[in-house]
Structures are given as structure tokens and as C-alpha cells.
Design brief:
36% of the residues lie in helices and 15% in strands. The chain is an alpha/beta fold and 384 residues long. Strand 4, helix 5 and strand 5 form a beta-alpha-beta unit.
């Protein structure tokens, strides 16, 4: 039985694990060593060293993630932003331009809006739902196009098939942040994307105890990104690699439960008299529900919603819930509630948030693995 023929649940447990097992260890041991004995390597990038991303802990984890994504190669990094920034600084050089979806995670948006200019890079933001408008933004120096599988925090679903087709037609590198979907719900490399990025802090690890990032894609492109990462230094440490590998093994179980639980909660909120609107692609009322159904195996564990009345109602509601923890981040076993205007998108000016549709009263709920019934009862009590 070849590894490529295995289903994702089996890959999560077995892919990338060294055979024969190291001294019979069932779990991949932690190689808590920064440096390794010289083995005659001829290249700086091949010398076995923690910062060059080629130690046993890193290699096993990268092989597992590549198998999950059905990608030729993968690279792990010290954070999701390290994966994003290193990837973009690999495919772009001074004078180049990037096409990027207009509504992105706040850290990504700030990188493009604030840091690009100091590096001689430029970004052109596009409405990723309107392919007919992209051509006008294209320049001779445009090198890549960047989107999110489901946007943070409004859960928009871009025309991802059109993004792949447009990139191929114009010689662009297509890059997607697949954090919200995870490989359980969507595998971008299978859909034709060149590169798939995750903040592994979220679903891949799932336990809110490390920060990590991942990028997967073609072997030659990933090797270029690894070389850049070796210079920038955003390498993942061995213990974090162990925790990420351990967290991955339950990914399918967690995500499928979160898919189901979040859909039930979204339907409950949509029907509640105190709720103004709910953003979740699993709802039939979502403007891109049909597209999401065709793209994804599940709709994910994150939704956002707004309450009726003034924005201050959001803070009042957050103070009343008992089970959801009021904290940033997402994708873990705990249900987390946050107001993007004060956390993930606090770096955007108020007028920019308003332009993107991120109101001050918008709440984002990342559903964990608690009992769905208990969460519904808690939300109902807080709304009442």
C-alpha cells in the first residue's frame, strides 16, 4: 500500500514517520539538538543544522504535511506570519507587484500595506469575487496572486477556481492561505494552486500551545523558500515540531466535529431575534454557499456575527458568555470569542475596517470541541 493511496485519517497518523522506527519508538523522538555532526555536505543549505530546516524533527513533520496536502514538498516555520512573509519575499523581488484579495488577515494586510513599500514591493488589492476586474490590475511586473480559502473574519469565499486559471494564463504564482479550511476541508495543491500556507498555530496543531507555520507546494519552489527561510531565520524548534506532529494526528476528528458543531451554532444564531447577521459559508443564506459546497468538504469551525443595536452590545455579550474564552486566535479545542476590531484587525484604520465591512461590533467565534448543546445553551443565555 503506497502512502499516496492512503486516506487523510491514516496519513495524519503515519505519514512522514521514519521507518524503521528509531530504536522502536512509536512516536517520533524529539531531537533537541541545534547542531549535527558534519556528513560531507557540499552546500551551506544542506549542512544539518536547526536553522537550515533539515533536522530529523523538521524533516519528518514536513514529509507528513506534504502527504496531507498531496504536495511534493513542504516547509515548517516558526509562525504563520513567518511562512507568509518568507514565501512572499521568495517569489517577489524589488520592483515586483502582487495581486492580493482585499479582505485578508490583519497581519497579512499590514505586511503588504506597510512593509512592502520599504522593500521596493507593491500590492494591488482585488475583489477576489469578480474575475472580470482582475485584468485591469495586472501590470508587467505582477508576479503572484494571493488569496485566502475563507477570509478572516467575514468568511468570504473567493472564486478560487478562477484564481488558479487566471494565474496560469498570466504566468503568476498562485498562493492561498488555507488556515481556515485545513487540509481536511480543502487541499489547494489538488485544486491547482502553486503554494498553500497555514498558520499551524490554529487547526493543524489545535491545542493553543505553540506558534508555527507551514507552506507546501512544488519541490523546486519550496526549496527556494527554504533557502530564504535559512537566511531570515524563522525556523521551527524541535519541541514545537513534536507538538505540531502530535496535534496533527487528531486533525480529522477535530475538524469534522467542528464543521458539524459550527453549522448548528450558525443556524441558531441566524434565527435568533437579537442577531443582525451571521457570516458562515455553510448557511444557505451565504452569498457564496453554492461555491463553498463545490469547493470544500466542510465549512470550517469559524463564524462571525453582529448583534442588533449599538456596537457596545458586542462587549456586553462577550462579558456574559461562560464557555467561550474571550481571546484571539482560532482553530483549537477551546471555543474562542473575539472582536476583530480590537484584535486581529486592530492594525487597520477604522475607515479601512469599515470599507472592508469589519464593523466595530463584529464578533468572531472559533468553535472548539465542547458539547454543541452546552455551547448553544450558553449562547442562548448570554443573548437572553
Amino acid at each position: 500500500m503506497s502512502e499516496s493511496s492512503l486516506r487523510i485519517e491514516t496519513k495524519l497518523v503515519h505519514a512522514g514517520e521514519p521507518l524503521p522506527r528509531i530504536l522502536g519508538a512509536v512516536e517520533m523522538p524529539i531531537f533537541q539538538s541545534a547542531t549535527f555532526e558534519y556528513g560531507g555536505e557540499g552546500s551551506y543549505h544542506d549542512v544539518r543544522y536547526l536553522r537550515t530546516n533539515n533536522t530529523p524533527s523538521q524533516l519528518a513533520l514536513q514529509a507528513k504535511i506534504a502527504a496531507l496536502e498531496n504536495a511534493p514538498a513542504a516547509l515548517v516555520t516558526a509562525s504563520g506570519m513567518a511562512a507568509i512573509s518568507t514565501t512572499l519575499l521568495t517569489v517577489l523581488s524589488a520592483g515586483d507587484r502582487l495581486l492580493a484579495q482585499s479582505c485578508l488577515y490583519g497581519g497579512t494586510h499590514d505586511l503588504m500595506n506597510r512593509d512592502f513599500a520599504t522593500l521596493g514591493l507593491a500590492v494591488d488589492f482585488i475583489d477576489a469575487d469578480r474575475r472580470e476586474s482582475w485584468q485591469a490590475q495586472l501590470r508587467p511586473t505582477t508576479r503572484a496572486i494571493y488569496v485566502e480559502a475563507m477570509t478572516n473574519p467575514l468568511l468570504q469565499v473567493a472564486d478560487l477556481e478562477a484564481v488558479v486559471e487566471f494565474a496560469r494564463a498570466h504566468g503568476l504564482i498562485s498562493i492561498i492561505d488555507n488556515t481556515f479550511a485545513s487540509p481536511v476541508n480543502f487541499r489547494p495543491i489538488e485544486a491547482g494552486f502553486d503554494l498553500s500556507i497555514h498558520s499551524a498555530t490554529k487547526y493543524l496543531n489545535g491545542h493553543a500551545d505553540i506558534v508555527a507555520g507551514v507552506v507546501s507546494g512544488g519541490a523546486e519552489l519550496i526549496e527556494r523558500i527554504r533557502h530564504k527561510a535559512n537566511h531570515l531565520g524563522g525556523s521551527l524548534d524541535p519541541h514545537a515540531a513534536f507538538l505540531l506532529s502530535r496535534g496533527l494526528k487528531t486533525l480529522a476528528l477535530r475538524v469534522r466535529y467542528q464543521n458539524e458543531s459550527t453549522l448548528r451554532i450558525a443556524r441558531f444564531l441566524e434565527g435568533h431575534r437579537a442577531v443582525e447577521c451571521v457570516h458562515y459559508a455553510g448557511l444557505e443564506s451565504h452569498p457564496r454557499h453554492a461555491r463553498a459546497r463545490s469547493l470544500f468538504a466542510g465549512f470550517g469551525g469559524v463564524l462571525s456575527f453582529e448583534l442588533k443595536g449599538p456596537a457596545s452590545r458586542a462587549d456586553e455579550f462577550a462579558a456574559r458568555v461562560r464557555l467561550p474564552i474571550v481571546a484571539p486566535s482560532l482553530g483549537g479545542v477551546h471555543t474562542l470569542l473575539t472582536r476583530p476590531a480590537t484584535t486581529s484587525h486592530a492594525g487597520l484604520a477604522p475607515e479601512e475596517r469599515a470599507r472592508l465591512g469589519i464593523g466595530d461590533g463584529l464578533l468572531r467565534l472559533s468553535v472548539g470541541i465542547e458539547s454543541t448543546e452546552d455551547l448553544l445553551e450558553d449562547l442562548e443565555r448570554a443573548l437572553r
